[in-house]
Amino acid sequence: MNVFIQKIRRFFFRMSIREQILIFAILCVLVLWWMSAEFADWRSNWTRYNSHNFQIQEQNIWLSDKDEIELDLEKALNELDSDKTYSSSELAGRVDDLAREKELDFTIGNQRTVPNEDFNTHSIRISIRRAGLRPIIEFCNALQAEAPYLVIENMDISANRSRPTEHTAKFVVSSFELKNIAL
Hints:
Elements: H1 2-14, H2 17-64, H3 66-79, H4 88-101, E1 105-115, E2 119-131, H5 133-145, E3 150-159, E4 167-178
Antiparallel strand pairs: 1-2, 2-4, 3-4
């Protein structure tokens, strides 16, 4: 190793001052580049560490409230009537009935079901075309009256450019179907 370093020193000192300064400048740039990459890696690790630390603290708070959360869950489950929850087809039928009651021009789109151990979550898309604002609001109120069994997940209302009194509304309505309400 010592011989290798002596050869490098002899090679370096045989160069002109200008070449030595240029080599030194290149080495400084390479070291700065390496240090900036190390700093970015350290900063990324530090941010990840702080994020994980925050998540652990948040989970500890939830765990410390475990008894209270279980009591609230039991109370909420006791207040729910499993006969009033909607299956996928019942959700589509109920949304269809509410839209027909308000005499809306609508189409029902894709249905999606997310299965779970104790319940299924169903969602459905509905598009309403060429409707006044009042019937759309009445439809929203009718859906909200079905809470907590029906929930408006997403809603987008836009006015027709040629007829500002007519609107297009798009909704995503969700419901759940209880399978097993025992804790």
